[in-house]
């Protein structure tokens, strides 16, 4: 995606100079000129009010994919540490990199985050691209897109993985559009397959409303990009003896050129359900509850067993329970040790969010419900009888 300056249209306003995070634009004879430090990140394009900075799109079939190498994970931080989804992707990225025979790298953008390079190394990263600046302390779409796009254009990875979080979904789509790469969103499976002697990333995700699982391959564009849902893959075992090469990427962000400002960060409520993805036991309710008032049965059982409350999409859409309880394709992906599904039929959308649970117990009065196909234990019966009886038995046995 070559970017060039039409000097005939350049008015010498210098807006692009301050917009470039790599300091790669200079003024020569009152005209903007790219230096050798230009990474083609595209930050300058929208800054030019006169349309003097232009983008020449390249057909994906004209890209030499042999120039791209390595598996990258884009880091997301959480309370000063690497987010769980990043650690999970490092684990899966390590497997993919080993299968291809390439290096695994982490892209770490922020402020005061250099210490996390050691954590990335422990979880399998061999190289860390580190870009730090005070303006990068909080995630904002514009500067993060500019910086990471520049790093990708310069070092050319063949695979880029990002967590399918609020940040990841926002960031990945912007980067993919900027570099004309393919992007598969909300993946639940990744694998390497060989085609015509070339190892490709096969990306599996729910499609057509979750009714089928589609596997997508990007044969021509590079890098191959995917956002991956949290809790789909497990974290690897950290090895504190591992070390990673740290590549410091110098950046300079002009705050005045950033279109957004973070005023306040509001943490998610500590209400029940907000910790759903970390819960080891989840009790979920579906349409079989027949009404919002009957979620009290689910809460009682969850309280007795020390679990969190989950829900199907149908109950959330009906307004029976807040959306942060939703498990499934459009909700949260969970991987508890025990998942109890009460009155949930087992639509593909729901199974996509909890199918990897260690143990699944299904309670449903329909013996043909799809949930029984994935359940390790099934109870065919009236949940209004079974759930209270189960709750009572647990309280009597364990005094909870």
What's the topology here?
Layout: E1 3-5, H1 15-19, E2 25-28, E3 31-34, E4 53-55, E5 71-74, E6 77-78, E7 81-82, H2 84-100, E8 104-110, H3 116-122, E9 127-132, H4 141-155, E10 159-163, H5 166-179, E11 182-187, E12 189-195, E13 198-207, E14 212-216, E15 224-228, E16 245-248, E17 281-285, H6 295-305, E18 308-311, H7 313-317, E19 338-342, H8 348-354, E20 359-364, H9 371-374, E21 377-380, H10 383-398
Parallel strand pairs: 5-8, 5-10, 8-9, 9-16, 10-15, 11-15, 17-18, 17-19, 19-20, 20-21
Antiparallel strand pairs: 1-4, 2-3, 6-7, 12-13, 13-14
Helix pairs in contact: 4-5, 6-10
Walk me through what this model shows.
- This protein folds into three domains: 3-57, Alpha-Beta Plaits, CATH 3.30.70; 62-257, Rossmann fold (3-Layer(aba) Sandwich); 276-398, TPP-binding domain (Rossmann fold, 3-Layer(aba) Sandwich).
- 25% of the residues lie in helices and 25% in strands.
- The strands form six sheets. It has a seven-stranded parallel sheet, sandwiched between helices.
- It is an alpha/beta fold.
- The mean pLDDT is 90.
- It contains ten helices and 21 strands.
- It has helices at 15-19, 84-100, 116-122, 141-155, 166-179, 295-305, 313-317, 348-354, 371-374, 383-398, and strands at 3-5, 25-28, 31-34, 53-55, 71-74, 77-78, 81-82, 104-110, 127-132, 159-163, 182-187, 189-195, 198-207, 212-216, 224-228, 245-248, 281-285, 308-311, 338-342, 359-364, 377-380.
- α4 (141-155) packs across α5.
Task: Based on the model shown, name its key terms.
single chain, 400 residues, Alpha-Beta Plaits, Rossmann fold, 7-stranded parallel β-sheet, 5-stranded parallel β-sheet
């Amino acid at each position: 995606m070559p970017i060039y300056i039409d000097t005939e249209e350049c008015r010498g306003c210098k807006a692009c100079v301050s917009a470039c995070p790599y300091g790669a634009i200079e003024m020569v004879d009152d005209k903007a000129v790219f230096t050798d430090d230009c990474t083609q990140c595209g930050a300058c394009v929208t800054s030019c009010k006169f349309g003097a900075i232009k983008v020449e799109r390249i057909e994906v079939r004209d890209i030499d994919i042999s120039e791209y190498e390595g598996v990258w994970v884009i880091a997301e931080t959480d309370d000063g540490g690497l987010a769980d989804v990043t650690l999970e992707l490092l684990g899966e990225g390590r497997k993919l990199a080993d299968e291809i025979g390439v290096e695994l790298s982490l892209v770490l953008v922020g402020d005061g985050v250099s210490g996390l390079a050691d954590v990335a190394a422990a979880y399998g990263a061999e190289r860390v691209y580190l870009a730090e600046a005070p303006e990068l302390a909080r995630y904002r779409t514009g500067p993060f897109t500019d910086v990471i796009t520049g790093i990708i254009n310069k070092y050319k990875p063949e695979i880029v993985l990002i967590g399918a979080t609020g940040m990841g979904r926002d960031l990945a789509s912007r980067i993919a559009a900027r570099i004309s790469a393919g992007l598969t969103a909300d993946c639940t499976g990744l694998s390497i397959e060989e085609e015509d002697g070339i190892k490709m990333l096969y990306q599996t995700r729910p499609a057509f409303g979750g009714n089928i699982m589609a596997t997508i391959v990007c044969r021509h564009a590079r890098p191959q990009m995917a956002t991956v849902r949290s809790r789909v893959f497990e974290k690897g075992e950290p090895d504190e003896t591992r070390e990673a090469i740290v590549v410091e990427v110098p950046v300079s962000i002009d705050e005045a050129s950033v279109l957004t400002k973070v005023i306040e960060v509001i943490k998610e409520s500590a209400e029940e359900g907000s910790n759903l993805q970390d819960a080891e036991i989840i009790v979920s309710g579906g349409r079989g509850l027949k009404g919002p008032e009957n979620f009290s049965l689910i809460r009682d059982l969850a309280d007795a067993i020390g679990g969190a409350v989950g829900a199907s999409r149908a109950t959330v859409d009906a307004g029976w329970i807040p959306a942060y309880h939703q498990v499934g394709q459009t909700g949260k992906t969970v991987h508890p040790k025990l998942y109890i599904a009460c009155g949930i039929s087992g639509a593909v959308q729901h199974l996509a969010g909890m199918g990897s649970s260690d143990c699944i117990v299904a309670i449903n009065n329909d013996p043909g419900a799809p949930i029984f196909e994935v359940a390790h234990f099934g109870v065919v019966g009236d949940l209004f009888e079974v759930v209270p009886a189960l709750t009572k038995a647990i309280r009597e046995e364990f005094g909870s």
